[in-house]
Specification:
18 helices, Fumarate_lyase_fam, 3 domains, two-stranded antiparallel ribbon, L-Aspartase-like, 4 strands, Fumarase C, Chain B, domain 1, 61% helix, mainly alpha, Ribonucleotide Reductase Protein R1, domain 1, isomerase, Fumarase C, Chain A, domain 2
Length: 458
C-alpha cells in the first residue's frame, strides 16, 4: 500500500528533522537512477554504446551531471518499494520500469552487464558522498563558533571537574578548545573517507565477466582492459573513486564511512553532554540561547539542543556496530542478508550525523556564558580548588608529609586559609597568591592558542 513517505518523518527522532531531503527514499531512488544512467554513459565512453543513445537515456531519465542524483524520471518510490519485496532489492523492478521509459532501441544499454549490488552500492556511495558533504559544511560552522568562543573565553577561570567533583581550575576557553579538537579531528577523518568512497562495478560475482564479454565486439584485442576502463569511467560519471577491486564482500567503504560518522556524532555528543551538565539549575554556567519548555512545568528552560546531541550520540555507536557485524558476515561473492542489513543502517547513521551536526551548529552559535554563576561555583571550593598546587608549593616549607597532613585537616576553604595563616613556617609566604585559582592554570593559554592557530592553518 502507498505510504506517502510517512513511515518515519522524524516524529520520534527530532534530532534528525531536516535530514530526509538528503537521505530519504526519494533521494536514494534518484541515486539508483543516476547509477544506471552513469553505466550507460560509461559504455559510451568506450564506444560500445552509441553516444546518441547515452544522451537520450540521460535526457529521458533526468541526468543532472557527475556526482548528482537523477531527477524527473517519474518513478514512484512507494510503488518501487512494494515491487522490491519479491526480489529482495529495488534494482530489479527499477530496471524494468526505467526501460519502459526509454525508446526500444536504447533499452539494451541500460544496466548492461551490471548486477543489482553494483547499482545499490554505487547509489548509496553517491548519497553518502553528498550527505557527508553537508555534514562537513555544518561541522565547519561549528568549528568557527567554537574557535570564536575558545578565543573569547580563553582566560575565564572555571572549575574543572573529575569524576563529577571539583578538581582544579581550568578555563572556559580550554574546555571549548577541547570540544573543538574533537570536532575538528572528526571532520578531518570524515573528509578523507568521503574522498575515498568508491563506485561499485563487478558484475554477477565480481569478476567483470559480463563487461568483458560486452566489450569484446568493440575491443577484441583488449576486452579485459576495456572492462577495467569501464569501471573507471563509471566511477568518474558518479564523481566517486574508482575501486581497486569490486568490494561486494570487502565492505571497508561502508565500515570506514560508518566509523567516521560515529566519530563525528561522538565528538558532538561530548559537546552536548558538557553543555547539559553546565546548564543544570544548580550550576548554570552556560545556557542555550533558545531553550525548550515543558508541557507541565512553565518555569523550565530545558537544554534541548544538548539533549538532542546526547540522544544521537547514544544511538550512533550501535548503528556503527551493526555495519561491522554485517561486514564480518559478508560471505561468498554476495552475502545472504548481511548486505541487505547495511542499507537502512547506513542511512539512519547518515541521518543522525546530519541532524547532530545541524543541531550543533545552532547550539554552538548561541551559547550564553553566565559569569556570575561561574564565580559562585568557584567560591564553593575556594582555596580547596588549588590543593594540588598547595601540596607542591608548601612541601619546601613544611615537608611533603606535613604539607599533605595540613591540607587534609581542612574542612572547607575558610578553614584551609586559617590553617595556612596559623602555620609559622609560612609567615613569609604569600598565602593569597597561592590560593588564587587564576594563578594555577598551567599551560592552558598556550594550548588554546595552539589549537586556534592550527585551525587557521588547516
Amino acid at each position: 500500500m502507498p505510504t506517502d513517505g510517512a513511515v518515519d518523518r522524524g516524529l520520534l527522532s527530532p534530532v534528525s528533522i531536516g535530514a530526509a531531503d538528503a537521505v530519504g527514499d526519494d533521494v536514494v531512488l534518484d541515486a539508483l537512477v543516476a547509477a544506471e544512467i552513469a553505466l550507460t554513459r560509461a559504455w559510451a565512453t568506450l564506444d560500445v554504446a552509441p553516444s546518441a543513445a547515452a544522451e537520450r537515456v540521460s535526457d529521458r531519465l533526468g541526468w543532472l551531471g557527475a556526482g548528482h542524483p537523477a531527477s524527473g524520471h517519474g518513478i514512484d518510490a512507494d510503488d518501487l518499494a512494494e515491487a522490491a519485496v519479491s526480489g529482495g532489492n529495488p534494482v530489479i523492478p527499477l530496471v524494468s520500469r526505467l526501460r519502459g521509459l526509454l525508446d526500444e532501441s536504447d533499452r539494451e544499454w541500460l544496466h548492461r552487464g551490471a548486477t543489482s549490488q553494483d547499482i545499490v552500492d554505487s547509489a548509496l556511495m553517491l548519497v553518502a558522498r553528498r550527505a557527508g558533504g553537508r555534514i562537513i559544511v555544518e561541522l565547519d560552522v561549528v568549528d568557527a563558533a567554537l574557535a570564536g568562543l575558545a578565543g573569547t573565553e580563553r582566560d575565564r577561570v572555571v572549575v574543572a571537574r573529575t569524576l563529577g567533583q571539583h578538581a582544579v581550575p581550568t578555563t572556559m576557553g580550554m574546555r571549548v578548545a577541547t570540544w573543538l579538537v574533537g570536532v575538528r579531528r572528526a571532520r578531518g577523518r570524515l573528509a578523507v573517507v568521503l574522498e575515498q568512497l568508491p563506485a561499485q562495478l563487478g558484475g554477477a560475482a565480481g569478476t567483470l565477466a559480463a563487461f568483458v564479454e560486452h566489450a569484446r565486439a568493440a575491443h577484441p584485442a583488449d576486452a579485459e582492459a576495456a572492462a577495467l576502463r569501464l569501471v573507471a569511467a563509471f566511477a568518474d560519471e558518479l564523481d566517486l573513486a574508482a575501486p581497486e577491486l569490486p568490494w561486494h564482500t570487502v565492505r571497508w567503504p561502508i565500515t570506514e564511512l560508518g566509523d567516521a560518522l560515529v566519530q563525528a556524532v561522538d565528538a558532538l555528543g561530548v559537546v552536548g553532554a558538557d553543555i547539559a551538565t553546565l546548564t543544570r539549575t544548580e550550576i548554570g554556567e552556560l545556557a542555550e540561547s533558545s531553550p525548550g519548555g515543558s508541557s507541565a512545568m512553565p518555569q523550565k528552560r530545558n537544554p534541548v539542543g544538548a539533549v538532542l546531541l546526547r540522544s544521537a550520540a547514544m544511538r550512533a555507536p550501535q548503528l556503527g556496530a551493526t555495519l561491522h557485524s554485517a561486514s564480518a558476515l559478508a560471505v561468498d561473492e554476495r552475502p545472504d542478508g548481511a548486505w541487505h542489513a547495511e542499507w537502512s543502517t547506513l542511512r539512519e547513521l547518515l541521518r543522525l550525523a546530519l541532524g547532530a551536526a545541524s543541531t550543533a551548529r545552532a547550539l554552538t552559535a548561541g551559547l550564553v556564558i553566565d559569569g556570575a554563576a561561574i564565580e559562585r561555583t568557584l567560591a564553593l571550593s575556594g582555596g580547596m580548588l588549588v590543593a594540588e598546587r598547595l601540596a607542591i608549593a608548601l612541601a619546601p616549607h613544611l615537608g611533603d608529609d606535613r604539607a599533605r597532613a595540613l591540607l587534609g585537616r581542612a574542612t572547607d576553604a575558610a578553614d584551609l586559609e586559617r590553617l595556612l595563616r596559623a602555620e609559622p613556617a609560612l609567615a613569609e609566604v604569600d598565602i593569597a597568591a597561592l590560593l588564587d585559582p587564576g594563578a594555577y592554570l598551567g599551560a592552558t593559554g598556550i594550548m588554546i592558542d595552539r589549537v586556534l592557530d592550527g585551525g587557521q592553518q588547516r
